[in-house]
Amino acid sequence: MGNLLQDLRYAWRAFFKAPWFALLAIVTLALGAIGVINIMLVAVSERTQEIGLRKALGATNRNILFHFFLEGLLLTLGSGLLGLAGAGALMALMGGVQGPQ
User: Does residue 60 belong to any structural domain of this protein?
Assistant: First the structure.
């Protein structure tokens, strides 16, 4: 456990010593957010009839907004978990690779 904490501290310090890495992380998050916004815009524009039907059946604007918010949240969480699983699998595969000496 002590080694893990020491490794985490080292990684945290290294992250802030490389500002280009922080910039890359910010750009990546911004592009991911733009992608989610685009997907949700397409989902709303393609489902105008469904929205109209829900309004006709008595749904409030709040209900419809909550529905799309929940859909976007699940999409973001699902893709984030898939990304973490992929990164973990890649780290496990590369853990056995011996680098140059």
Answer: yes
Place of tokens 């009839």: 49
How many structural domains does the chain have?
1
pTM greater than 0.90: no
The string over 53-86, giving b where at least 16 C-beta atoms fall within 10 Å of a residue's C-beta and e elsewhere, is eeeeeeeeeeebeeeeeeeeeeebeeeeeeeeee
* Residues 6 or more apart in contact with residue 55 via CB below 8 angstroms: 64
- Answer whether residue 22 shows pLDDT above 80: no
Structural domain of residue 23, as residue ranges? 19-85
Residue-wise pLDDT for 24-47, tens only, equals: 888 988 998 898 888 888 888 888
